[in-house]
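Hi R.,

As promised on Friday, here is the backbone we talked about, encoded as structure tokens. Could you run it through your design pipeline when you get a chance and send me back a sequence?
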């Protein structure tokens, strides 16, 4: 059903609604700690049908509402062993809530949360070291659009790469520069696409 729904959306040139019943990305998403704990014990407590029967999947979302059950569920997804009673689970939960209170959002950034989890559990193996970066946005003529230029310096093993790239805005320029530096070491990055990003509005005293 989900596949057919996405096929129709593609033909109609529509973006699939993630909140759509049965077929949406959030149709079987669970967020609260108590909620997730119940679903892990018995999915039928919150799911009227199994997501697999309609071609969907169960999702456990991470946020400041999360509890140890949420962390255990995500650790399982990431193939990381993290029992609920492990002291590291409480430490990770405290860090998560602190970061969320600072404005971070991991609900839509599972990759970032996986990195956080692996770092805190001592399981993270950096693929490269960021030595520094700089982004310049300038407007050279009144009748031209602003130009964004990013400079990135990274170290992979013993090799240092220093690259420069331009893009449509600072995020796009950084994306191009980091790819330029890393693709020779990790060709699979050519298959990774930046689809979206969020811009956070900061308070005046933090800008």
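Update: got your reply. Pasting your designed sequence below so it's all in one thread:
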């Amino acid at each position: 059903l989900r596949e057919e729904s996405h096929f129709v959306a593609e033909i109609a040139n529509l973006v699939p609604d993630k909140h759509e019943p049965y077929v949406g990305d959030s149709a079987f998403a669970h967020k609260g700690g108590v909620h997730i704990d119940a679903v892990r014990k018995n999915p039928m407590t919150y799911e009227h049908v199994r997501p697999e029967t309609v071609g969907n999947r169960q999702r456990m979302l991470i946020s400041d509402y999360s509890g140890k059950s949420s962390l255990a569920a995500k650790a399982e997804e990431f193939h990381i062993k993290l029992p609920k009673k492990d002291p590291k689970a409480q430490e990770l939960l405290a860090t998560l809530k602190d970061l969320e209170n600072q404005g971070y959002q991991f609900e839509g950034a599972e990759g970032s949360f996986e990195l956080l989890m692996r770092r805190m559990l001592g399981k993270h193996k950096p693929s490269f070291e960021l030595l520094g970066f700089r982004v310049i946005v300038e407007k050279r003529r009144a009748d031209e659009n602003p130009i964004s230029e990013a400079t990135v310096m990274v170290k992979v093993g013993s090799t240092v790469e220093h690259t420069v790239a331009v893009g449509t805005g600072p995020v796009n320029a950084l994306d191009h520069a980091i790819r330029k530096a890393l693709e020779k070491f990790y060709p699979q990055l050519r298959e990774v696409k930046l689809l979206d990003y969020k811009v956070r509005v900061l308070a005046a005293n933090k800008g």
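One thing I noticed while checking it: Residues 48 and 103 are 34 Å apart (CA to CA).

Thanks again,
M.
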